[in-house]
From TrEMBL:
InterPro entries according to UniProt: Post-SET_dom, SET_dom, SET_dom_sf
Any Gene Ontology biological process: methylation
Taxonomic placement: Eukaryota, Viridiplantae, Streptophyta, Embryophyta, Tracheophyta
PANTHER family: HISTONE-LYSINE N-METHYLTRANSFERASE SUVR5
Name of protein: SET domain-containing protein
Amino acid sequence: MSRLVEGQVRYVIDSTKYGNVSRFINHSCSPNLVNHQVLVESMDCQRAHIGLYASRDIAAGEELTYDYRYELLPGEGHPCHCESRNCRARLY
């Protein structure tokens, strides 16, 4: 949070008050979705939406996941529970 106060992070996605079903898609260090910017009604990258797309075939009933890609900061961070073979063991 200190990076937000110091102004080092320009944009944050926060679904606390507004969001859609993507707020229920969990993190995995080996995700089956990738995210890309999607320009809608404007070529202004500052107003881009985020689209989630399958990175491989996804089996029926398989959990949808994407990599939150948090920067690993010094210290303990927050443990990752994704249980993938490539798990980094922490989210940040």
